[in-house]
Design brief:
- This protein is of the alpha/beta class.
- It contains 6 helices and 9 strands.
- The protein has a single domain, classed as Aldolase class I (TIM Barrel, Alpha-Beta Barrel), CATH 3.20.20.
- The longest helix has 18 residues.
- It binds iron/sulfur cluster.
- Iron/sulfur cluster (SF4) binds next to loops.
- The site of iron/sulfur cluster has 12 residues, from loops.
């Protein structure tokens, strides 16, 4: 598995926002979203090969319960991802697996966090397969305009997931843009009774790497 970085921070998004967490960021992604906020991890060359045992040993240095496996896109390493989840589950960690939901991997996270991309890669069959898994699930959709938000709302209504676990997130890699997007997205979310997915890492650190 090629790893871009492993670091301690607080979860910036979703139902566990604010929870101290160790982030395992893989290098490499099967999509190429123009607005990617972790572009430094998109290429496999941006990381170094690590054995699953070495990753687990690194994680053990931190005394936190939550582990976030993110990227890049973790599901491009299906075998290692499976092993990593098993080993982290065995030592009592709560895994959040962040995925763009374009590839299905039958592993066992505590929370499956789906972030399908409206126009870059939306695979309904894979999303539904992921939503049928026996673990907690959330969907976070990045939107760039009111039109995106309306589209996202329509698409998510078809899915079998509690509404409180669906978030619309501003397409914003900087604090200024986040604040500008929130100005129209928060009223949209209030009007349509859907959660606004603020991004703490952007608001606190302007999406600085390793935080
Ligand atoms: S799927 Fe995620 S990591 Fe991959 S390019 Fe898109 S935003 Fe970046």
């Amino acid at each position: 598995m090629i790893i871009n970085e492993i670091f301690l921070s607080v979860q910036g998004e979703g139902i566990y926002i604010g929870s101290p967490s160790v982030f395992i960021r893989v290098a490499g992604c099967n999509l190429d979203c123009p607005w990617c906020d972790t572009a430094y991890a998109k290429a496999p060359e941006s990381g170094k090969e690590m054995l699953v045992n070495s990753i687990v040993n690194e994680v053990k240095k931190y005394e936190v319960e939550h582990i976030v496996i993110t990227g890049g896109e973790p599901t491009i390493y299906p075998e290692e991802l499976n092993k990593l989840c098993d080993k982290l589950n065995n030592i009592g960690k709560k895994i959040t697996l962040e995925t763009n939901s374009t590839i299905f991997v039958d592993c066992n996270p505590h929370l499956l966090s789906l972030s399908p991309k409206l126009y870059q890669g939306w695979y309904e069959e894979i999303i539904n397969k992921n939503l049928s898994k026996n673990c907690k699930k959330q969907i976070k959709i990045v939107v760039n305009s009111i039109e995106d938000a309306i589209d996202a709302l329509k698409r998510t209504e078809k899915f079998d997931i509690e509404k409180e676990n669906v978030f619309l997130m501003p397409n914003a890699a900087t604090r200024d843009k986040h604040i500008r997007c929130a100005a129209w997205l928060v009223p949209f979310c209030c009007k349509n009774n859907i959660r606004f997915g603020g991004r703490l890492q952007t608001l606190l650190w302007n999406s600085e790497r390793g935080k």
